[in-house]
UniProtKB/TrEMBL annotation:
<dbReference type="InterPro" id="IPR046867">
    <property type="entry name" value="AldOxase/xan_DH_MoCoBD2"/>
</dbReference>
<dbReference type="InterPro" id="IPR006311">
    <property type="entry name" value="TAT_signal"/>
</dbReference>
<dbReference type="Pfam" id="PF02738">
    <property type="entry name" value="MoCoBD_1"/>
</dbReference>
<dbReference type="InterPro" id="IPR019546">
    <property type="entry name" value="TAT_signal_bac_arc"/>
</dbReference>
<feature type="domain" description="Aldehyde oxidase/xanthine dehydrogenase a/b hammerhead">
    <location>
        <begin position="211"/>
        <end position="297"/>
    </location>
</feature>
<protein>
    <submittedName>
        <fullName>Xanthine dehydrogenase</fullName>
    </submittedName>
</protein>
<dbReference type="InterPro" id="IPR008274">
    <property type="entry name" value="AldOxase/xan_DH_MoCoBD1"/>
</dbReference>
<dbReference type="Pfam" id="PF20256">
    <property type="entry name" value="MoCoBD_2"/>
</dbReference>
<dbReference type="InterPro" id="IPR052516">
    <property type="entry name" value="N-heterocyclic_Hydroxylase"/>
</dbReference>
<dbReference type="InterPro" id="IPR037165">
    <property type="entry name" value="AldOxase/xan_DH_Mopterin-bd_sf"/>
</dbReference>
<dbReference type="InterPro" id="IPR012368">
    <property type="entry name" value="OxRdtase_Mopterin-bd_su_IorB"/>
</dbReference>
<dbReference type="InterPro" id="IPR000674">
    <property type="entry name" value="Ald_Oxase/Xan_DH_a/b"/>
</dbReference>
<dbReference type="GO" id="GO:0016491">
    <property type="term" value="F:oxidoreductase activity"/>
</dbReference>
Length: 721
């Protein structure tokens, strides 16, 4: 595997990098106005009319290069995309070279790495593009040998003439193939014919990560680069009243200290930057910097007040309706046996292993950025507007990300780095400390849910959900008179068929605390409330919780998923002194069910004995990557449910680092078994959908064992019994 992730992918370097001489087969995606992709060759393209997704390039030596337009932050796209291409192109994985694209939505299409979208949004086009390349190479070989196309086939980067045994590697055929018309409907393999896809191939980036040769944002270096650390208002949007840099400037290596501003959508955050010859010097200078803040002019929140306000809103407002079926309000108002409870989930930080960092160089007429970035297009849009430079002159280079979880899709840290660079007139790397990351957000919003429902004839007669929590869209100028579009996220669509009286509403709640995407977004909080309440309804109906869900989820795929959950967990054979909990959620077109088994811990509290996870993500690439993502999601869900939260006092975060925001330790992770449903449905997401079912499955299991219903997260396992 050749590694070129430290090379700047300008157009000129791109051609040098891929070894293009006078002959190459290059195919990309063309997106016309109707949005239907068509395969094209470079001769058919003009800069004025194209938007390209990943390019596949075969150079004269036969090497295949893929330009990955999305970020790699641990989710596996750096491996999965080549695995798709290698399957239909008939090349060995070791003969593929992968490089990151620069930010260019006109050329590569959407580049936001989020919503578990990389594979599900591009796999069909990647398969088609790769198959078309293979067919063109076969046609070129057949013409060269003057033989029938049907007597030729491709394997391991070669075209082979079956009767004679003649062979030609792809590089020999690239020039001739590039002059051929592109097949409009290349023949794709059946799933049963796959040699690579759906196989647990070892990830090609693992050796590079373990030997330290990959370039993450923190590793990147630019000639002449300085380093900066920024002191920022802990209440987010205060102003710099004054600062004293006397002692900071005495620290060896510190060059400059000055006020800087960064944008967070329509908001501005001020800080004082310490610029130095090294990160260490910048941090030491910042320690002795004295800053006075003016944090007046906006409300200062504390955690108890947040949840008290949300609870009052839920009991005094109907909210903005997102989904309504029948008339649940009237039916519940007349009922004397309804359930009416509130669930609460906390604010959470992202705490990715690689802290926030970004390199920027404001060159006057253009700006160039390097770093761990999930959304280069968003960065280009923001920087272009903020610094009044054409978007095309804002160059964003993606490095590997040491975790992202949505945080590194934000625009604030690149904006700040560009601001520092503009003042010093050269390139600079701005590095956030772990304390900066924990305290400054943006955070997953803390949310309260009011859940009402009633049972009739053993089934749900009426169900009413109301959510009060910050709407992430409002930070990006979203309309405040419309419900949060994610209010129903995580709630399975087949419920709409079986529950005739149902409503889901958003009750407007806002604070000055910045919030944004967190792994699985609102499904991570919705799932806890909605699937916990479904469990309460099952108990009210005196039904087995898994059977109860089976009755209400009549869709065939859900039925098969439940069958698998029941089979792998021996659900029907569970003992009375064991606690079993179930939850099923859906997000990003994938459905995941968890079953959690718990028991009494001899040392006190609850012990998690085992977790079974069953995922239906439709078409998929690599089962090992799926297992890793689901396992990681469960660990992250465990932490969010039982070990950490972000709390506020006077609008200041009370947590600082891992000592008071503790992540689960390896000895706290239960055995996990992951199962994948095989089918040929459209691909769903993998990186996020495995998280939402865990918390409700766990608390439902605790209820099954103890009779204690947990409705507020986080809780301590040691106190759960």
């Amino acid at each position: 595997m050749t590694k070129n992730n430290n090379v700047d992918t300008t157009r000129r370097n791109f051609l040098k990098l891929t070894g293009l001489g006078g002959a190459a087969l290059c195919l990309g995606f063309y997106f016309p106005a109707d949005g239907v992709p068509t395969l094209v060759t470079p001769a058919e393209l003009t800069d004025a009319e194209i938007e390209l997704c990943p390019w596949i390039i075969i150079n004269p030596s036969g090497k295949v290069t893929i330009v990955n337009h999305r970020a790699e932050m641990g989710q596996g796209s750096y491996h999965s995309v080549p695995q798709i291409v290698a399957e239909e192109l008939e090349v060995d994985m070791n003969d593929i070279n992968v490089i990151f694209a620069i930010g260019n939505e006109k050329k590569y299409g959407g580049q936001v790495t989020g919503g578990s979208s990389t594979i599900r949004s591009s796999y069909k086009n990647l398969l088609k593009l790769s198959a078309a390349s293979r067919e063109m190479l076969i046609v070129a070989a057949a013409a060269k040998w003057n033989v029938s196309i049907t007597d030729c086939y491709a394997a391991s980067g070669l075209v082979i003439h079956k009767p004679s045994g003649k062979k030609a590697h792809y590089g020999e055929l690239a020039l001739a193939a590039s002059k051929l018309p592109v097949p409009k409907e290349p023949k794709l393999k059946k799933i049963s014919e796959y040699k690579l896809i759906r196989k647990p191939l070892k990830r090609i980036d693992t050796p590079l990560k373990t030997n330290g040769s990959l370039i993450f944002g923190l590793d990147k270096r630019i000639p002449g680069m300085l380093f900066a650390s920024v002191e920022r208002d802990p209440r987010y949007f205060g102003k710099v009243k004054s600062f004293d840099a006397t002692q900071a400037l005495k620290v060896p290596g510190v060059r400059k200290v000055f006020k800087v501003e960064m944008s967070y959508y329509e908001y501005k955050r001020e800080g004082v930057a310490v610029v130095a010859d090294s990160t260490w010097a910048a941090l030491e200078g910042r320690k002795v910097l004295k800053v006075q803040w003016d944090s007046s002019g906006f409300k200062h929140w504390s955690t108890p007040e947040i949840y008290k306000t949300q609870n009052n809103l839920l009991h005094n407002q109907e909210g903005m309706m997102l989904k309504t079926l029948g008339n649940p309000t009237e039916i519940l108002a007349q009922s004397t046996k309804k359930l009416d409870v509130v669930y609460q989930t906390p604010y959470q930080s992202h705490v990715a292993m690689e802290p926030i960092n970004c390199i920027a160089h404001h060159k006057g007429e253009s700006i160039e950025i390097w770093g761990p970035i999930q959304a280069p297009g968003w960065i280009q849009d923001d920087i272009s507007k903020q610094f009044k430079i054409d978007k095309e002159k804002v160059i964003v280079n993606m490095t590997f990300l040491g975790g992202g979880f949505g945080r590194k899709a934000m625009i604030d840290y690149p904006s700040e780095a560009v601001g520092v660079s503009k003042i010093i007139g050269g390139p600079v790397q701005v590095v956030w400390t772990r304390e900066d990351d924990a305290a400054l957000g943006p955070f997953r919003p803390g949310i309260s849910y009011r859940c009402e429902g009633m049972i009739a004839n053993g089934k749900i007669e009426a169900l009413k959900f109301r959510m009060a929590g910050q709407n992430n869209d409002h930070w990006r100028g979203g309309a405040k008179d419309k419900p949060n579009r994610s209010t129903s996220e995580g709630f399975l669509k087949p419920y709409y068929e079986s529950i005739k009286n149902l409503s889901i509403a958003d009750v407007l709640f806002e604070t000055t605390i910045p919030t944004s995407f967190w792994r699985s977004v609102y499904a991570s909080t919705n799932g806890f409330a909605y699937e916990s309440f479904i469990d309460e309804m099952a108990h009210e109906a005196e039904k087995d919780p898994l059977d109860f869900r089976r009755e209400h989820l009549q869709e065939d795929r859900c039925q098969k998923l439940i069958d698998k959950m029941e089979e792998v967990s021996d659900w029907k054979k569970r003992a009375k002194n064991e606690g079993y909990g179930v939850a099923i959620t859906e997000c990003f077109n994938s459905t995941v069910g968890h079953i959690v088994k718990v028991s009494k811990n001899p040392q006190g509290g609850i012990k998690i004995d085992k977790v079974w996870a069953v995922m239906d993500c439709g078409w998929y690439v690599n089962p090992d990557i799926i297992h890793a993502q689901v396992e990681g999601s469960i660990v992250m869900g465990l932490g969010a449910a039982t070990t950490h939260q972000i709390t506020f006092k006077d609008n200041v975060v009370e947590q600082h680092n891992f000592y008071d925001y503790p992540l689960p330790r390896i000895n706290e992770i239960p055995p996990i078994e992951v199962y994948i449903i095989d089918n040929e449905e459209d691909a769903g997401g993998v990186g996020e959908p495995g998280l939402p079912p865990f918390a409700p499955a766990l608390t439902n299991a605790i209820f099954d064992l103890t009779g204690k219903r947990i409705r507020t997260l986080p809780f301590k396992l040691s106190d759960a019994y």
